[in-house]
TrEMBL record:
Residue ranges of every copy of the Hikeshi-like N-terminal domain listed in the record: 6-132
Gene Ontology biological-process entries: cellular response to heat; protein import into nucleus
Record protein name field: Protein Hikeshi
Protein family (similarity comment): Belongs to the OPI10 family.
Keyword set includes Membrane: no
Keywords: Cytoplasm, Nucleus, Protein transport, Transport
Ranges of residues in domain Hikeshi-like C-terminal: 139-199
Chief localization: cytoplasm
Alphabetized PANTHER family for the sequence: HIKESHI FAMILY MEMBER (PTHR12925), PROTEIN HIKESHI (PTHR12925:SF0)
Keyword Transport: yes
Summary of subunit composition and partner proteins: Forms an asymmetric homodimer; required for binding and nuclear import of HSP70 proteins. Interacts with ATP-bound HSP70 proteins.
Function recorded in the entry: Acts as a specific nuclear import carrier for HSP70 proteins following heat-shock stress: acts by mediating the nucleoporin-dependent translocation of ATP-bound HSP70 proteins into the nucleus. HSP70 proteins import is required to protect cells from heat shock damages. Does not translocate ADP-bound HSP70 proteins into the nucleus.
GO cellular component, one term: nucleus
Amino acid sequence: MFGCLVAGRLVQTDAVQVSPDKFVFNLPDYESVNHVVVFMLGTVPFPAGTGGAVYFSFPDPASGGPVWQLLGFITNEKPSAIFKISGLRGGEGGAHPFGMMAASSLSPSVAQVGVSVEALDQLAQQMPVSSAAVATVDSFLLFTQKMLDSLYNFAASFAVSQAQMAPNPSETFVPSGCLLKWYENFQRRMSQNPNFWKN
């Protein structure tokens, strides 16, 4: 029903079903993991009106017990999600539906990713750990920045010094410094207010 993906590792599809509505993946050497992707395999959808709360558990350095933190959720409409786990801290766990059932005799370097099937109403009320959110950049903004980089690099490839210019009355020349100044101004405005172009 679920899969778990970590960069540089094989995809895990062998979730352990610890109860009828709870599934767990073991994540060895979790200290070297920055992000984890949890997704539905597409073989079995969630029952109507339900989704999956995604939790991350790692051994607390102080107590040795598992610390469970809510990362977010997946649904039939949103069948995959990526979460940042490198910024999570021990001792900051919250309420979770797994109890001690999933933490049976794991080594200190093994973490767990848990999926709990819950009602969509309940998922909407839960508050994930803020450090698990992956920063997103507006796709239009990203496209615009890449397009402008490309335009400047293309135009700069035709640059010639004034001494190298051959007279050509049919062409108009724009100083490359003018384009560079505009581009730097655009970048400065984007860094101050990423949404300025929407106004």
